[in-house]
Design goal:
With 92 residues, this protein is mostly helical.
């Protein structure tokens, strides 16, 4: 779902798209959840999924509202690192 804005509803994911999704999941520490149904995830895990989606979009502007709500301390650390990297990339 994270790549829909770049691909459209009928576009097919290429290697770069798969890399971006895998990287976003790895940066948020949720790679092990790749095959899990969203309905089976906890609130904190869902929050990490949403943040991983934002990272995979490679947006120039990322707007978040309470992005660390429901995330444990380790998740907050991953979030801060990921968004610091996005700032370095030039995102706002």
């Amino acid at each position: 779902m994270a790549r829909y804005p770049a691909l459209g509803l009928v576009g097919r994911m290429g290697d770069r798209d798969h890399e971006l999704v895998a990287d976003g999941m790895a940066r948020m520490g949720i790679s092990h959840l790749a095959t899990s149904a969203m309905r089976s995830l906890s609130g904190g895990q869902l929050q990490r999924v949403y943040l991983a989606q934002a990272l995979a979009r490679e947006a120039d502007l990322i707007v978040v509202d309470e992005p660390t709500a429901g995330i444990d301390a380790g998740g907050r650390e991953l979030y801060l690192d990921a968004f610091a990297a996005e700032l370095q990339r030039g995102a706002a």
